[in-house]
Structures are given as structure tokens and as C-alpha cells.
Amino acid sequence: MYCCHPCKFGTWHPSPVKPNFNSATRLAAAQKRWASQAARREDDSKISIGPQRKGESGEDEKDTGIVYYGPISSTIKKVKLLSLSTCCLSVSLGPVITFMTSPGMNVILKGAVASTVIFLSASTTGALHWFVSPYIHKLRWQPGSDSFEVEMLSWLATYIPRTIKFADIRPAETNRPFVTFKANGDFYFVDTEHCHNKALLARLTPQTNDQKSTLKNL
């Protein structure tokens, strides 16, 4: 790129002008940062199934001692928040909409319809909580310790820490789905395919008396 200017003898001579690469580099870097932030916000808004990669969950890297992450922990929390939101809307707005939309309907029938809507919404929310309540979202354990800490999900989709001793673990003798072991009267579930600490997994999955007798017979 050249520009022309008159010299003192009245003739024109082209002089080279160096392009400004700094502004172009800064613009490209800003566009790259904006694109990465937009992609991250889009990924966070989606309901993903599977284990999260490091750095995606937004957890502090200083959180040490965690040996197991629930692979669908974020998905369960988002689904539960959605269920709680719909339940609250059904309980608060269901009766109002029922009584306002059908002025000619009998009052008793309106009450029955509103009660049915509330019951169905609360039942689905309760069934979802019963189904995912044994799911362990995080597990902290130091090798050599006789206890470990787990994070469970409460009714309001908040994490609750619990400390469990290995001596309190019992086999889960139940037909309830997604249960690995029982401790202190509560059921717990660990995804064995994503628990890479085999020594810990062996202590979390005790054998029943029938299994022990079968192994002895073999």
C-alpha cells in the first residue's frame, strides 16, 4: 500500500506505509473470546446427558478429595428444577385458571378439576424425587479413611452433604431401581461404570449372603 505526497522539488514519490497489525490482532482476539463465551452460554442452557468435562461445571478446582462425580448430575438437577417450577405454577395458577375460564361450570366440578391438576402435578414431582433421591452427585474420600462424604439432592434441588461410614453400608435388598447400597436406612446409587477407583467401588458394593454362598460353592 502506497501513498503519494509532494516533495520539495515539486515531484511525487510513493512512500510505503506499514499496515497496523496490532488492531487487527486485537479485533480477532476479541471476536474469538466472544465466540467462546457465546458457545459456553449455549452449552450451559442445554440439558446434557453424560459426564461433564473438567472446567464445564464451574466448580472450584481447589475442591480436593472428590473421587467420583455423578455423570448426569447436572441433568437431574435441571429436570428437578423444571418439575418444581411446573408444580408451583400448577398449585398457584391452576385453581385460578379453572375458576376463571369456565364461569358456567358447577363450583364443585371446578374444585374437583383444580384438585386433580394439583394432585397430578404434585404426584409427578414426588415420583421424580423418589426416583432420583438415591443418586450420588459427588463423593469425597481419602484413602485409608473409614468414612466418606456424599452430596445428595434435596426436595428443593439443593445439594446436601452426608457423611457415611463404611461399617454402616449394607447390601441393597430391594427391587427399587438404581440402588447400589444401603446405609443408615437410606438408599444410595453409584454409577459403577464411572467410578474408576476399584478399591472404593468394592467397599461400596457389599455382597449378599446368597452371593457369598454361591462363590463358596464355586
TrEMBL record:
<dbReference type="InterPro" id="IPR045325">
    <property type="entry name" value="TMEM70/TMEM186/TMEM223"/>
</dbReference>
<keyword id="KW-0812">Transmembrane</keyword>
<keyword id="KW-1133">Transmembrane helix</keyword>
<keyword id="KW-0472">Membrane</keyword>
<protein>
    <recommendedName>
        <fullName>Transmembrane protein 70</fullName>
    </recommendedName>
</protein>
<dbReference type="GO" id="GO:0031966">
    <property type="term" value="C:mitochondrial membrane"/>
</dbReference>
<feature type="region of interest" description="Disordered">
    <location>
        <begin position="36"/>
        <end position="61"/>
    </location>
</feature>
<dbReference type="Pfam" id="PF06979">
    <property type="entry name" value="TMEM70"/>
</dbReference>
<feature type="transmembrane region" description="Helical">
    <location>
        <begin position="107"/>
        <end position="132"/>
    </location>
</feature>
<feature type="transmembrane region" description="Helical">
    <location>
        <begin position="81"/>
        <end position="101"/>
    </location>
</feature>
<dbReference type="InterPro" id="IPR009724">
    <property type="entry name" value="TMEM70"/>
</dbReference>
<dbReference type="GO" id="GO:0033615">
    <property type="term" value="P:mitochondrial proton-transporting ATP synthase complex assembly"/>
</dbReference>
